[in-house]
């Protein structure tokens, strides 16, 4: 007798789902039988992607376009799901971007929106979905952080590493709190990954000068992240090269690490 897919009868919510790691995660979850709720800013692209997943994998796939930089968006998504009786069993907080300018050179509104997307929105979505997961005795939460969360902050990305360090610590706390409840929490911490991220931030040409061995593909990142949360692994750093970098960063004296970061 063939076992039912892991996601049969369950629903996953993926933010930033229209491209990159978010899209790869949505495909993996659909392949595992999860119905999907996808959210991202680009409505046309998101709807087309949801239709593609439905046709390819036979799962329900709903697109809810929205901008997580707007404080009300998370609540609107949750309200829409509640009205339709949809419970979230698997949450992937993936939406994110970077601001590649020095902190004091940017308008506060840009930094405020960044914090809303990178910190406040993941926290709010976890807060809304976690009680239901606990009640049902099953839940999976992946907070997509970054290797940058383990490293000293660098100039021109002032809040990026800080936001990812927050997600790592947040995930660790949630993981401890949820021990024995059936809810698994993992911080997925990729390094450089081939996605549209660097096109959106305008850093593609500069990033392409970095050695090829540093680059991962989104499918590999997602595969490792998916298996990590299923094992209830607190932190997942895909790629041997990045596990080595994180290990080294933790051993360097702080003043040396900061000097290296300042060379950028």
What report would you give on this structure?
Strands 3-2-1-4-5-6-9 form a seven-stranded parallel sheet, sandwiched between helices. Strands 7-8 form a two-stranded parallel sheet. It is built from ten helices and nine strands. The mean pLDDT is 90. Helix 1 runs parallel beside helix 2 and helix 1 (20-31) crosses helix 8 (218-230). The chain is an alpha/beta fold and 264 residues long. The protein has a single domain (11-261), classed as Rossmann fold (3-Layer(aba) Sandwich).
CATH class: Alpha Beta
- The arrangement of helices and strands along the chain is EHEHEHEHEHEEHHEHEHH
Rg is: 18 Å
At the fourth level of CATH, the homologous superfamily is: NAD(P)-binding Rossmann-like Domain
CATH architecture: 3-Layer(aba) Sandwich
Q: What's the helix count?
A: 10
| Main sheet: strand order | 3-2-1-4-5-6-9
Number of E-state strands: 9
* Strand content range: 5-15%
What count of structural domains?
1
The assigned structural class equals alpha/beta
Mean pLDDT: 90
> Could you describe the largest sheet, including whether it forms a barrel?
7 strands, parallel
Mass-distribution shape: globular
- Separation of termini? 57 Å
Low-confidence stretches: none
